[in-house]
Specification:
The protein is α/β, with parallel strands linked by helices. The chain contains 5 helices and 6 strands.
Amino acid sequence: MRKAGILNRHLSGALAELGHGHGVLVCDAGMPIPRGPRVVDLAFRAGVPSFAEVLEGLLEELVVEGATAATEIREANPAAAALLDGHFPGLALVPHDHLKDLSADAHLIVRTGEGRPYANVLLHCGVFF
């Protein structure tokens, strides 16, 4: 068993398969999950694990060159918007319906137990060199 880092074997394995340009959607429990992308569902109960906890853990493991979130996050979920702004100064914003369309092309979807609306972000993977 790993001593530190991500312990979930499904998530750890999925992260190891990511490459440059792959998308990873980190989403709340209410985001519709499209057919196609690999899904790792971490939701245990409402709020567990939180969007912030999962995002922080993933950012320790991934090189991210950009991120996209829903325009609606600014008004509907200021806490999540502030979290994303803190990590991604160049955060791209698109209408929520467009974010749902983009999620169909993600390589991986990580579902959290988050219950606040619009706690979703599409991470664009980079490379470490």
